[in-house]
Amino acid sequence: MLKVIVSLLLTLAINAKEANAKSKVCPSGWMHLVSACYHLSTYKTTWSKARAACQKLEGDLVVPTNSKENNAVSNIVKQRKLGHPWIGLVRHKDKKFYTVQGGKPSYTNWHPAQPDSPNSENCAHFYDSIGRWNDIPCSQQYHFICQKPPIKRK
Ligand SMILES: [Ca+2]
């Protein structure tokens, strides 16, 4: 009897776990990587217009928060040949970079010797094939990556 109950409880636990995994999904046009949903642009534009486009899609520019996320996004960028896309970090008046959410980044992956131009390069983008970052004038036109949390379906 005990064996049956234990087995039943295990089955329920596994089903619950699977249901939870399936309930975390991304909307159409977005891909799930690591812990978020990502949308890749089909055109190049300035940093501000890229951000506005992401917000219109109810997301924001990507802010990688660890090397796993950064590598996953950088690999997709390479696969899709998106060049050097914008990410969600921008210089404020104090000359430091902040995330689009307004906080100091908890993780950064600047290319060696970057950021290097506090007076003219106020936006951040993926700079090389391994996803390191560079500051560059915000008026440049690049592809961009939007991010939003997965949807939790009830
Ligand atoms: Ca730079």
UniProtKB/TrEMBL annotation:
PROSITE patterns in the record: C_TYPE_LECTIN_1 (PS00615), C_TYPE_LECTIN_2 (PS50041)
InterPro entries cross-referenced by the UniProt entry: C-type_lectin-like, C-type_lectin-like/link_sf, C-type_lectin/snaclec_domain, C-type_lectin_CS, CTDL_fold
SUPFAM superfamilies per record: C-type lectin-like
Keyword field contains Disulfide bond: yes
Keyword field: Disulfide bond
Disulfide bond in keyword set: yes
Protein's name according to its UniProt entry: Uncharacterized protein
Organism this protein belongs to: Paramuricea clavata (Red gorgonian)
